[in-house]
Amino acid sequence: MKHVDEKTGSIENLEDLVVFGGAPKFRETLHVGKPNIGNREMFFDQANEMFDNLWLTNDGPVLKKFELRLAELLGVRHVVAVCNATKGLEIAAKALRLQGEVILPSFTFVATAHALEWIGIRPVFCDVDPRTHTIDPQKVEALITPQTTAILGVHLWGLPCDTDALAGIARRHGLSVVYDAAHAFFCSHQGRWIGEFGDLEIFSFHATKFFNTFEGGAITTNDDQVAEQARLLRNFGFAGYDKVVSHGTNGKMSEISAAMGLANLPNLGDFIETNRRNLGHYAQGLAGAPGLRLLPFPAGEKNNFQYVVVEIDRDAAGISRDDILTVLHAERVLARRYFYPGCHKMEPYLTCDPDAGKSLPVTESLVESVLNLPNGTAVGADEIRRICDMIRFCTRNGEEITTRLKSIGS
């Protein structure tokens, strides 16, 4: 198969698209979350320290250094590093002694719900704010029952939940407030770093996040008792040598993951600046395109700008989100339709409540319209220009592309 010149990648006719026989516009696949790699020398220094200590896991000195550094950066009293954010959510729920039901958005990665379901808590799905895609406080109160023990908000795309409104609801009903901050590391809200809101917050440092520890996460809190309980729970309930004082699990972060975290911290500013600059290129490249809304970030607050989120109005754009996605994927641009089809349409939740979507109209709309585009150090101005050109071409030729795609699929 021939290749289009990557310096131009021009699309003039439908036949220039791969789906209709054209050459791919990119030689390498572009991902939404390709790993960022920070200071390699620092990583190897930390790894050598780990080898010299012969201490590979179990709260070693590299991990403690990493936790202390994170606490200093975020301005929180306690950071409890964990092997991944899903385990962090489970430990957090146990540390707060949650049970019964917890209210959370369906418009989130399924791990948010799975972590609760896994430990016997029923997720109760709430709709989201159409502007921010975060849990809608106006819809929360109606879902509270005698079995409700907490509200679990998700700072989606690094956009903060309405923490004041959720705190007020929680106070009135005696509930805990937990935040899934998987997207929100190094983002601020009300001039404070996300990490100190609610009873606790949980970050993800998975490889696809802009800041990663290979695999990992962290629980942050200013509550001494909650932090102590979380530390017990992540290490089988051990409170000393041969002294188990509670139930627990194995949720510890390894030394090598902590070393990766320490090596990436000095590059936070560079990673964020790359994301911010890329977002500006997308805003310029998509400006004026019909039916497209690039999700904005609040002025005056810090953000990691990791996610480039576009809402596509099928009627105004003249083409569906999914047909644009088909075109992009064929061109090796692996954009994502987060968070399709919504947790409420995944198992076991669909079987438990097949009619949940009736009370989630905003979520039902977003899962059909949201498109997440590649970002990070793996893309730059030229790649973004060509991605935007493809999307604009799709909106100019939407009816014909849709018709031809249907004929190929039939």
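The above is record 1. Record 2 follows with the same two-line structure.
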Amino acid sequence: MLSPVTTEPLYEKVKKQLLDYIEETKPGVLPCEKDLIKLFKVSRNTVRRAVQDLTWSGVLKPVQGRGTIVMKHAEEKARDIGVICTDSLDITSPWISSMLQTLQKTAHSDNYHLNLFLCHDYTIDPLNNSAYSYLVNSGKLAGLILLSALKNDDINHIRKLNLPFVTVDFQYRAFNHPFATPDIIKVISKIIDDYTASGYTRFGMLAKSTEVLELTECRGQNDYIIDEWEGLLKTKGLPVIEYDFTATVEEQLKKMYAMPADQRPEVLFTPFIPYGKAVIKMLKQFNDWKPVHVRNTIKGSQFEAPCIISNPAIEAQKAFAILSRIISAKQSSKPEGCKVDLEYKL
């Protein structure tokens, strides 16, 4: 008597392929249904049945607002990311809010929970930040994204914990570490070329060194622009205006105005976003000096040309991508940097 011929249901084959996929890629969250249909080249009903069976067996767990979690790997990994921001910054400002919204969205899509830690006086005190202490001591904190500079002792402590971290908009001279920062000096160079082609020859910049904050090992975005500003003008054969970057922006502006009229900057850069509106107001007091003011603005906000257009969302995505790679490789913070190109409008 012949035995009946049996064929394995297609959804069972997809289940096995899904398990192999999970074992190989170790995702925290399963790809969406549409992507699975493309991946396995089967119907929607077949994918749904395979996912349903794996859910019943405890391999997968659908979570509203997060997707279908792969339980095995969700439990194996620390799933909390910390974002450190000084309490002196306005977290409702366009730059910070755009950065946080993007980080939240990116973390969410990768099955991480985002935690915001506010630090005071450029230090994060574990005694006054119980949430930070709990996540560090429990081993649940996978890594940190620093939107604010921290004092050297704090950075040393993070390194001793072997905790991956990425900085945004600043770097530390004493440490090689990952960072994501806009390449403002590159876009300033392009703008200068455009203006010199139109006959402008005198360029000035208003910026304030972060070294006055007594963070001697920290170099902010302004510091790097200041470092390269003089060399940039010299390589283009343009005159260099000498002034004190440790002075306030208002003091720098008044010193420029005190120069002979034929030596004052014809084009004035304010690369640090918060200075832009203040400088516009200050320039109104000078009736006989009207330089072209190139300020730094945020993509999506109301702005007038000429301007540099920063995109904090891209910076946030780059920073998170770097941190994710470090976490996945189970390494401490390695020297991986990323400079983000900026747009401008004249």
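The CA atoms of residues 85 and 118 lie 5 Å apart.
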